[in-house]
Design a protein that fits this description.
8 strands, single chain, globular
């Protein structure tokens, strides 16, 4: 397994900018699809496509709502909540996986977790889904071990892969080559896990990517 490493911190303004760009990138696709659907409804020559337009608007609105709800907890402050019901986290993760090729298996053996653990579960789950571009299964497990929560997220499927920038981010390394959107999620995860006194790991095997974290409970 590859453990986090010490590196010069990236400036907070850069992290904020990259996170904002990452979220905007995720939101723009369903938002644009909703706009396209509305344009079809307004087009008098496209009356025969009304059902298709309504379907596009409905599915895109659902995707946008799922992403917004997910990001509010995964990246945001989520109001003043300091603990989270794992059933609510399951719903948030499942909502995002509804729009991914991979499927989610959620098995978290604790009723509630603190904010760093909640963020870790959601971010690692989404990264596991992204590691399965052609489909597969992302298994999310967590169990209380003494004073810590142990998290294991396993992505299994054909062509499972971990982008180099994701691995660099999880190790706390600044971005070298690659896409900022993939790196910043991993780097942000490294930051809040280590700030909470925990550790995060990644391991790449044939058709399998494993993420693991330990966080004080």
């Amino acid at each position: 397994m590859t453990e986090t490493a010490t590196a010069a911190p990236v400036r907070p303004a850069e992290i904020a900018a990259y996170l904002a760009a990452r979220m905007c990138h995720d939101f723009i696709s369903p938002a644009s699809a909703i706009s396209s659907g509305l344009d079809l409804l307004d087009d008098p020559s496209a009356h025969d496509m009304r059902d298709e337009a309504m379907g596009l608007i409905t599915s895109s609105a659902r995707k946008l709502a799922d992403l917004l709800s997910f990001c509010r907890v995964a990246f945001g402050a989520s109001a003043s909540a300091e603990t989270f019901d794992v059933r609510d986290l399951d719903k948030l993760a499942s909502g995002v996986f509804e729009h991914m090729r991979a499927t989610l298996e959620w098995a978290v053996d604790t009723p509630a977790v603190n904010k760093p653990a909640a963020r870790a579960l959601l971010n690692l789950a989404q990264m596991a889904g992204a590691a399965l571009p052609t489909g597969g299964v992302a298994k999310v497990r967590a169990v209380q071990e003494g004073s810590s929560l142990a998290i294991a997220v396993e992505a299994t499927g054909p062509r499972a892969r971990l982008r180099p920038e994701v691995l660099a981010g999880l190790q706390g390394q600044p971005l070298g080559e690659g896409l900022h959107g993939h790196w910043v999620q991993a780097y942000y995860t490294h930051l809040f896990v280590t700030d909470a006194g925990g550790r995060v790991f990644a391991d790449v095997q044939e058709e399998r990517v494993i993420f693991a974290a330990t966080i004080p409970a």
